[in-house]
Write a structure and sequence with these properties.
This protein has 169 residues and is of the alpha+beta class. It has helices spanning 2-31, 73-80, 114-117, 125-138, 155-161, and strands at residues 50-57, 63-68, 89-96, 107-108, 165-166. It folds into 3 domains: 1-29; 43-96, no CATH class; 107-166, AF1531-like domain (DNA polymerase, domain 1). The chain is built from 5 helices and 5 strands, in the order αββαββαααβ. The strands form 2 sheets. It has a 3-stranded antiparallel beta sheet, with no helix packed on it. It has a two-stranded parallel ribbon with strand order 4-5. A hairpin with a 5-residue loop joins strand 1 and strand 2. The longest helix has 30 residues, at 2-31. The chain is elongated.
């Protein structure tokens, strides 16, 4: 009877250790499913009332959203159709100027995904993917003029989109 009691204690201890281990690791496993987001803590200090946010990933409506600076992140994600359990959502936040006569937003060619690059003048799906592929193969662009190194983008196309792109962070 002593060995039977020892076996039961061993099994109960092993099961308890597995359950405790799982409970300790579960939050860390779930945390890896989400992309960290850096938000500007105090937009009022910058003197702007709009924020431009590019949202991609596991959302129904990826795109570029311009919202008031006091819009809650949950409200913004609801606009995109992102669920609370979406495995991957990427946000790129740009603080926009408040005046109506301000210059247009520029697309950072080092960060933009193909769908956003397609919005540029003269860039369709094939050229957008070529830009992404070039960036993956050769690293980030250091100057916007390097776009002319991408197959299919010459000086004419570059001249049409040079005012719409940037390489700054």
């Amino acid at each position: 009877m002593g060995s039977e009691t020892g076996t039961r204690v061993y099994v109960v201890t092993a099961i308890t250790a597995v359950v405790v281990g799982f409970c300790c690791l579960a939050p860390h496993l779930q945390a890896e499913r989400f992309t960290p987001v850096l938000l500007q803590p105090d937009l009022s200090a910058i003197g702007t009332d709009t924020v431009c946010v590019a949202i991609t990933g596991d959302v129904e409506h990826p795109g570029l959203y311009t919202v008031d600076s006091d819009t809650a992140l949950a409200d913004l994600l609801a606009l995109t159709g992102a669920g609370i359990d979406s495995p991957s959502v990427t946000l790129a936040v740009t603080i926009g100027p408040s005046s109506a006569g301000s210059p247009a937003q520029k697309v950072n060619i080092n960060l933009a995904e193909a769908w956003l690059l397609e919005a540029l003048p003269g860039i369709g799906p094939d050229k957008a993917q070529a830009i992404v592929d070039f960036r993956l193969q050769h690293g980030d662009f250091t100057h916007t003029e390097e776009l002319m190194l991408v197959p299919g983008i010459g000086s004419t196309i570059f001249d049409n989109l040079k005012d719409c792109v940037t390489v700054t962070g």
